[in-house]
């Protein structure tokens, strides 16, 4: 069947694209999503996101062994359902500091600086608690709010952070501030709001929008140097969809490069090794993978802290070196050990300590033994020693907060890293032993103008007509924030670039 636009992947970005492109009743839009439309009950409850990991709505990827993490294999969940990872994520709505976007432009992503991105970051959101509409959107589809219920432990956490010198921010999402502030969430009346809920569902009745779930794209159809459509499987049957105008990949930081590689667009040597005919030798496809590496500083408490309701919590943005941009993030948790659960950890509070500007880079490559199966995912965590050093600073700064007087009514003792981990060498070893994902892979189809770039600053795949990528994979460098909001904004901007309608 012929469409004007075929969008591959109905995740965070794909839902925005399908919605915005189909606003024009004269164009026919097809959205292909490998996962299903039905959602387990736990998906609605923002407190139960960890219960979704490893279920049928998760691709349940794993990394290759990580030398920087003592050879560990990390679990890498990714949403496989309408809404994609926004349907299984931890619902934090966090925008990057302006430095993040300005750094994109400086690296060759012309036109992706903060002033250009700000209208798109505003367009996505209805920020009900935000103080200043110059920086925050008030009319967008995603409702953004601080948790409705306060908890004395987290009021104490704000005090603790201020006590040890972090400035109290009025709005950590305005792109300008640092220090401690309240997190914002995509939660409405206690229920998760995914990109599918906010963008896709309201447009599902449109006669010019077709959404096919259980439809896994297998390869792109290339006609000379032009992408003319997509081959996909549905109910075990191979089907094709053609695109008169364009195909846009929104299959995420793993799915988009894998589909390009399976279609012969990527590094020629890797394609040949996997038995794929080379259509366009594009060195950067799948390269440049990075994520925020994360560790935990956790404390047992003298009494239970876990609330029955979804409570608001603060987070802290800071710099490991005052001369450098923001590079560390502390998010508070009511589980003293890693969020995927450590049996017997007991009651407590923790800070997840994440490095927001890692220098280490890895890759997503086809598995030559099974190119259509799960790709070889290598975030190459902590390959750069300077990443370890900054995480050690993060552990120290988290300990300052965790040991502050404001926490003393609650604190029993430090659980992680633990009393034996004190000097720099022990902290480095702890960081390597405990590093895990913050669930934010990016960079595998990065925007740029150099030979390693995959898409140009208008998101067009270099060397192929009629094909764009618009999802988390295009970020040249990861932002100093959780990645969902920025991915929504990338897709909003992509829709404008594609249609020419502001
Ligand atoms: C467990 C978890 C917790 C997270 N917590 C947060 C958080 O609290 N805040 C935050 O900001 N970010 C968070 N993130 C990250 C955030 O959700 C992602 O950055 C964002 O969703 C990425 O959007 P995307 O459109 O690039 O990819 P996705 O949303 O992953 O969408 C990709 C879609 O493409 C589909 N797809 C893939 N391959 C194919 C194919 N071949 N054919 C058809 N369809 C395909 C997938 O099934 C998926 O639906 C979290 C992520 C996870 C996994």
TrEMBL record:
Annotated ranges, domain Glucose-methanol-choline oxidoreductase N-terminal: 252-266
InterPro entries: FAD/NAD-bd_sf, GMC_OxRdtase, GMC_OxRdtase_N, GMC_OxRtase_C
Keyword Flavoprotein: yes
Cofactor needs: FAD
Family to which the UniProt record says this protein belongs: Belongs to the GMC oxidoreductase family.
Presence of the UniProt keyword Flavoprotein in the record: yes
Protein name: GMC family oxidoreductase N-terminal domain-containing protein
Pfam families assigned: GMC_oxred_C, GMC_oxred_N
Keywords assigned: FAD, Flavoprotein, Plasmid
């Amino acid at each position: 069947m012929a469409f004007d636009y075929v969008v591959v992947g109905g995740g965070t970005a794909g839902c925005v694209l399908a919605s915005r492109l189909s606003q024009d009743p004269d164009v026919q839009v097809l959205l292909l999503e490998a996962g299903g439309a039905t959602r387990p009950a736990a998906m609605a409850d923002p407190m139960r996101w960890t219960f979704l990991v490893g279920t049928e709505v998760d691709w349940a990827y794993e990394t290759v062994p990580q030398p920087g993490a003592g050879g560990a294999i990390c679990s890498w969940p990714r949403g496989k359902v309408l809404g994609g990872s926004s349907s299984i994520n931890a619902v934090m709505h966090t925008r990057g500091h302006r430095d993040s976007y300005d750094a994109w432009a400086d690296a060759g992503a012309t036109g992706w600086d903060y002033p250009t991105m700000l209208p798109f970051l505003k367009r996505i959101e209805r920020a009900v608690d935000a103080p200043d509409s110059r920086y925050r959107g008030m009319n967008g589809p995603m409702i953004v709010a601080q948790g409705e219920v306060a908890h004395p432990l987290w009021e104490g956490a704000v005090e603790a952070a201020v006590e040890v010198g972090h400035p109290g921010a009025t709005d950590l999402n305005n792109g300008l501030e640092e220090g401690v502030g309240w997190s914002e969430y995509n939660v409405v009346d206690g229920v998760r709001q995914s990109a599918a809920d906010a963008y896709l569902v309201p447009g599902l009745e449109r006669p010019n929008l077709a959404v096919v779930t259980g439809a896994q794209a297998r390869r792109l159809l290339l006609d000379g140097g032009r992408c003319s459509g997509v081959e996909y499987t549905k109910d075990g049957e191979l089907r094709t969809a053609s695109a008169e105008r364009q195909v846009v990949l929104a299959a995420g930081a793993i799915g988009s490069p894998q589909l390009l590689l399976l279609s012969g667009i990527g590094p020629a040597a890797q394609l040949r090794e996997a038995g794929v005919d080379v259509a366009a030798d594009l060195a950067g496809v799948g390269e440049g993978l990075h994520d925020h590496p994360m560790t935990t500083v956790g404390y047992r408490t003298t009494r239970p802290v876990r609330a029955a309701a979804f409570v608001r919590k603060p987070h802290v943005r800071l710099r490991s070196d005052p001369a450098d941009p923001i590079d560390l993030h502390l998010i508070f948790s009511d589980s003293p050990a890693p969020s995927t659960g450590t049996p017997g950890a007991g009651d407590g509070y923790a800070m997840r300590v994440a490095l927001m500007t890692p220098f280490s880079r890895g890759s997503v490559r086809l598995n030559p033994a099974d190119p259509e199966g799960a790709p070889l995912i290598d975030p190459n965590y902590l390959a750069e020693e300077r990443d370890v050093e900054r995480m050690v600073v993060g552990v120290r700064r988290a300990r300052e907060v965790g040991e502050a007087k404001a926490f003393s009514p609650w604190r029993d003792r430090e659980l992680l890293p633990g009393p034996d981990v004190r000097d720099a060498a022990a902290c480095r070893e702890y960081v390597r032993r405990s590093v895990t994902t913050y669930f934010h892979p990016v960079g595998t189809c990065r925007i740029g103008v150099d030979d390693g770039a995959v898409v140009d600053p208008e998101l067009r795949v270099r060397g192929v007509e009629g094909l764009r990528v618009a999802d988390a994979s295009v970020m040249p460098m990861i932002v100093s924030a959780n990645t969902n909001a920025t991915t929504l904004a990338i897709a909003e901007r992509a829709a404008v670039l594609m249609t020419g309608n502001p």
